[in-house]
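In line with agreed milestones, the collection of sequences with tokenised folds has grown. One record among many is set out beneath this paragraph:
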Amino acid sequence: MTCRVDCGEHGMEAETEKDRRISCCLITGMTGSGKTSLVKSLLNSLPPDARCIICIHQHAKSFGLDSHAPVPSDMAPDDPRLAHFCQVFDFGSGCICCSPDGDLTRELVGRIPLIDTEGYTHLIIETTGLADPRPFIRLLCVDPVIVSSFRLDRVVCVADAGKILKQLGEEVPLNKLNKASVQVRNADTLLLNKMDKLPPQGRAMVLEEVETSARILNGGIKLLQAEREARMQWAGLMEAERDRSQDKLPCGACDDDGYERMVQIINLEGHD
């Protein structure tokens, strides 16, 4: 799978042996779910000759911040597989970083001339806990400059297994989806993290309830499990194919009208 959403001819280009674009994984999920732990786990699982770009999306509290921040000490700054680390900022809208002149767009476009010399092979983008992943998906699937060099292979929503049901059930105004629901709706994979913190006798019930709720929003989503450190290998994550045959509702990641129709359908079915 090259791009999980119907984003036009650029994003839906079939992956072939000649496709040498940089493989991209977009990681979303609520605050505290374990997104950064997954980023570190994926980096650690890459082959020794990999060259990975990691972009962390932040909500800026003030202007004039340097997007080329130092690599956090727990992100293995000396790991040769970490070829470039950056933080990209928006100032409250959640979309500015993905606009044509936004931080993320500039950052990715700026990497393109360096692909051959730096040997970039992978890209991991982590959004903030409250981010809507749709602008990121649009950028990675539609922008012809970005699509020419980067291939969106996976959109992962990381969830705290003990909190996700409450987060999905958070009340919001009619014809709206709460943040957690938007993230699940637009992901290929739902990674249930911190499974080890659930009582053993209650895990099966939680899994069943989460799967039911997730598939109401996204019929083809793949559910995976992880413990506190969100241990997951890149290869294993890429092999977790999304079952498109189970899609129940129109995907709205690149179609705002379709997204609103999807919300209305959910509300009519009693799932708001």
Observations:
- The chain has one domain: 22-268.
- The two ends are 30 Å apart (CA to CA).
